[in-house]
Design brief:
- This protein is mainly alpha-helical.
- The protein has 7 helices and no strands.
């Protein structure tokens, strides 16, 4: 068993585990994008997408379990989510799997999220990457991405639902 009070020390190797997991998600976006671009019908982009989505769950779970939540971890987590989903949507567009309108709305939401983050930084003097319940609606994108990769029916409807819920989470 792990002594949780020991993990709270920055010198303990498990203290950095959530951040390493979050950072690995950022790195995994590169092979995901390459595989999807060159081999879109291969199962490998789906496998990498599922690993990336799983690591999104694991980093927060470990951080809370071992009491080693940090501003760096929150930032890495939020950045990893944004980069992965944005790359996925852009690749889906260039592969003809989503429309230009869908991509434009998704990119617009990303811009709104960025502006909101900057405004919060200016007003409060710190970055607000805390995950509020409304922000969790964006997790629907983690359903839509594998759905598209599997080429399941009703993909457009799932995408629009994820767009609407992500927009609600942004406001």
């Amino acid at each position: 068993t792990v002594n949780h009070s020991m993990v709270e020390s920055k010198r303990h190797p498990l203290y950095w585990l959530p951040n390493v997991i979050s950072f690995s998600r950022l790195i995994l976006v590169i092979p995901y994008a390459w595989l999807f671009w060159w081999h879109p019908d291969s199962p490998y982009p789906l496998i990498l997408a599922l690993i990336i989505i799983l690591t999104d769950k694991l980093d927060g779970m470990f951080a809370r379990r071992f009491k080693c939540e940090s501003q760096l971890g929150e930032t890495l987590d939020a950045t990893g989510d944004q980069i992965f989903t944005t790359v996925a949507w852009v690749l889906f567009y260039f592969n003809g799997m989503i429309t230009l309108l869908m991509l434009a709305v998704i990119i617009s939401i990303r811009v709104l999220q960025g502006i909101s983050l900057i405004i919060h930084k200016v007003r409060r003097k710190h970055w607000n990457t805390t995950h509020l319940i409304w922000g969790k609606f964006g997790v629907v994108q983690f359903v839509a991405i594998p759905w598209l990769l599997l080429r399941l029916p009703y993909a457009a409807e799932i995408i629009w639902i994820s767009i609407v819920l992500t927009l609600i989470g942004t406001l």
